[in-house]
Amino acid sequence: MNNFNIIIQNLNNIVYKPNNLMITNLKEEKQNAEYAGCLFHLNNKTIRFRKSKVTPNKIGQFVSFWEKDENMRNRAFSYEAAPDLLVITCIADNKLGQFIFA
After folding, report:
1. Record's Pfam families (predicted)?
2. Rounded mean pLDDT of 31-53?
3. What is the dihedral of CA 10, 14, 17, 23, to 10 degrees?
4. Are 12 and 20 in contact (CB under 8 A)?
């Protein structure tokens, strides 16, 4: 399951909607497509979202929280651009988990 829309739709149906959490202002981050990167609001919180990925050379799942500058180089987010929450979703087989950082 790597498709951005499928991932968000499944999370919405499995986790968010049943808990009365509403996704609004969804904006895909194309430069972070490898991690299904996006920004959205979940009720009154701003969220920066990533899906972890499995790499062939390392054990476990990995994720990156960078943004691209005008030259498409990675750079850290500025404090002013920080969301309320960073959310990492891990999916393996039929298992799903989330790490939420405030």
Report:
1. MepB-like
2. 92
3. -40
4. no
| C-alpha R_g of the chain | 14
> What DSSP state is assigned to residue 72?
S
What is the pLDDT at residue 16?
96
- Give the H/E segment covering residue 5: helix 4-11
**75 pLDDT tier (thresholds 50, 70, 90):** confident
Between residues 64 and 45, the one the model is more confident about: 45
Q: Domains of the chain (ranges plus CATH)? A: 4-81 (3.40.1350.140)
Tokens for 63? 């994720």
Residue 8 class from Cβ within 10 Å (0-12 exposed, 13-18 middle, 19+ buried)? buried
Cα 86 to its chain centre, rounded Å, is: 8
**Distance from CA of residue 70 to its chain's centroid?**
22
CA distances from 85 to 37, 39, 82 (A): 14, 10, 8
